[in-house]
Amino acid sequence: xxxxxxxxxxxxxxxxxxxxxxxxxxxxxxxxxxxxxxxxxxxxxxxxxxxxxxxxxxxxxxxxxxxxxxxxxxxxxxxxxxxxxxxxxxxxxxxxxxxxxxxxxxxxxxxxxxxxxxxxxxxxxxxxxxxxxxxxxxxxxxxxxxxxxxxxxxxxxxxxxxxxxxxxxxxxxxxxxxxxxxxxxxxxxxxxxxxxxxxxxxxxxxxxxxxxxxxxxxxxxxxxxxxxxxxxxxxxxxxxxxxxxxxxxxxxxxxxxxxxxxxxxxxxxxxxxxxxxxxxxxxxxxxxxxxxxxxxxxxxxxxxxxxxxxxxxxxxxxxxxxxxxxxxxxxxxxxxxxxxxxxxxxxxxxxxxxxxxxxxxxxxxxxxxxxxxxxxxxxxxxxxxxxxxx
Length: 390
Ligand code: SIN
Ligand code: CO
Prior knowledge:
The chain has 390 residues and is an alpha+beta fold.
């Protein structure tokens, strides 16, 4: 069954089928489980063998563009090393007492990007990344809780998951990771390759590798109110237009010059009350904020970019794809890409949106001037890349 998505009132078929949620439809899952309670899905991805080997994961962790962590338990003491990791970090690890976690694997592997697409019954605005972990038999990162929803898809090897809704939130003192001191499991499952466990935010969980195993965590983002407010205030600051200044002609000498006068307070209040925003500011802000690349992400511009004419000719013959690191969202008349906003017509929006599914959008009937011009800007910025095939 192909997945369906609503698109400006129209239903489009997405080329990537959703992950199985057992006998639940995405709607039923969202109604009964999402943000509410855990769900175990046996054979969510039957025959899943993982997308990369242990060696390839270690290689990624050594790359300085990749966020990775190596959690090590020496006796009862936890140690956490942040990437880029080195050969030395991997030498002399205590047997069965460590775990490697690599973030944003979807930025590097097309198959990992496609795996995220299997979860697009949740809006892209809520998606964060695919993290892949490796642990030898006995390894893990200890009992903890996360502030975000997560789907834990089991790759090669088996992992035992212990979970609890009710727990003592006390954390292990002086540990570099947040580890629950007194965790007691309420439910336990042994996950085999292809099985999946969904956990809502703040559910305590403890994953112990039964064999050397890899776990694929599909993580979501939910900004705190404070984060949203701070980023919105930054957005407003960038878009403020005023060159007026505080004035006080007719100033009266104050009895106490130390005191902030009533007049000054009133004038400041009147100035601050001029800060106004409307629904379209919120729309712009959300698109820009939610597609802003993480701070360690950079886009390589083509060293010798093609001319516009050559570009259009080339992508008719070859293929154009979103850079795997690009974040795209749309809203009524706009496309947001990597923290930038593009006002577009509905046909161009529809054409360009196909990039998210790694579809070849530039077939003869999708080419138009507007799409071509926007694509060219994205190509020059390194947000899309020319490839030979999908
Ligand atoms: C892991 O893969 O080891 C940890 C994933 C998680 O607990 O969120
Ligand atoms: Co976790």
